[in-house]
Amino acid sequence: MKKIFTLSFTLLFLFSCSDDQKKAESNETVVSVRVQSVSRGEIRPFVSASGKIESENSAEISTRMMGYVNKIHVKTGQQVKEGQLLASLNNSDLQAKKAQAEAGILQATASFNNAKKDYDRFVNLYSQQSASQKELDDMTARFEIAKAGLESAKQMKNEVLAQFSYANITAPFSGVITQTFVKDGDMATPGMPLLSMEGISKMQVTAMVSEEDISMVNKGMQATVRIKSLNKEMKGKVSEVSQSAKNTGGQYLVKIILDEMDTEIRSGMFVNVQFPLESKPEDKPFDKILVPENALVKQGQLTGIYTVGNENTAILRWLRVGNVYGSQIEILSGLSEGETYIVSSEGKLFNGAKITIQ
């Protein structure tokens, strides 16, 4: 009886395990994928450099006077027009200087008018031979001094009025406020940045080119700019090439003006720039293994790609990659010509995942 019970329990356990295995196999997800064979591509020679996007016009707004900030009229990210009021500084001391200058003008005007009357009278007396040459010369000198005093008083007022422009800071061009460095009530000093702004009408790329490649980059040549975060390519033209790397650690600054504007482009975005080189008829293009960059898998510092293994499983293989060519990247090792890799999937891939090829 005991043997029969043991045998029955064993059979029940085996049937249960078999059912669990069938359920696990039936619940296993099969990922639908698109695949492609590894092939070599011909690449024309070019110079590659890294850089970032910035506005063609940018400025840090400061003042030439000392005073408390009454009000900052703009916020970070706000678009402004040329001449728009950005910040106001306390100008009570300027108001006092203006009043003094106006009082000085009144005093100088009175002295000038009195000297002019005396001068005109002595000119008539001298013509009637009723005044000496010495008396006329003295009166002429007095008149000229009064005239210069009045002009000096007027220029002093102009100087005070010019300082009012430093108390009311306006936008030097149309653009967007990128940062505010002070707030209401802060003390502003001469030369201290109050705000920074950038123009939005034109964007440019600043790239750093190595000393080995700078001789092949010239002003006016075309360039291809790839914006990494947006996965976009744009065309541009080299506008400036630095002649010195003294302050840039052996890297030469190159500026590229973009041919078109895009609303998604923002200042500070990192880019990869390619300067295509002129090739001679006898020059042969480079022969390289290339795969789409969006097919790669990144984990920290490692770069890999899913290949198709036995029994239609996804196998993650680590690679050593080289230069970027547009939307494709060079494979230095880890893949061989003719092998099959996964370009995209309709589900989450992992090492050993079951796949079905579209």
Description:
- The chain is of the alpha+beta class and 358 residues long.
- It has 4 domains: 30-45 and 285-357, conserved putative lor/sdh protein from methanococcus maripaludis s2 fold; 48-56 and 203-276, Elongation Factor Tu (Ef-tu), domain 3 (Beta Barrel), CATH 2.40.30.170; 63-88 and 168-198, OB fold (Dihydrolipoamide Acetyltransferase, E2P); 92-167, Helix hairpin bin (Helix Hairpins).
- The protein is built from 3 helices and 23 strands.
- It has helices at residues 2-27, 92-127, 133-167; strands spanning 30-37, 40-43, 46-55, 58-61, 67-72, 79-80, 85-89, 168-170, 175-180, 187-188, 195-198, 203-210, 222-227, 232-241, 251-258, 270-276, 286-292, 297-299, 302-308, 314-325, 328-333, 340-345, 354-357.
- The strands form 5 sheets. It has a 6-stranded antiparallel sheet with strand order 2-17-21-20-19-18, with no helix packed on it. It has a 6-stranded antiparallel β-barrel with strand order 3-12-15-14-13-16. The protein has a 4-stranded antiparallel sheet with strand order 4-11-9-6, with no helix packed on it.
- Helix 2 runs antiparallel to helix 3.
- The protein is elongated, with a radius of gyration of 39 Å.
- The two termini are 57 Å apart.
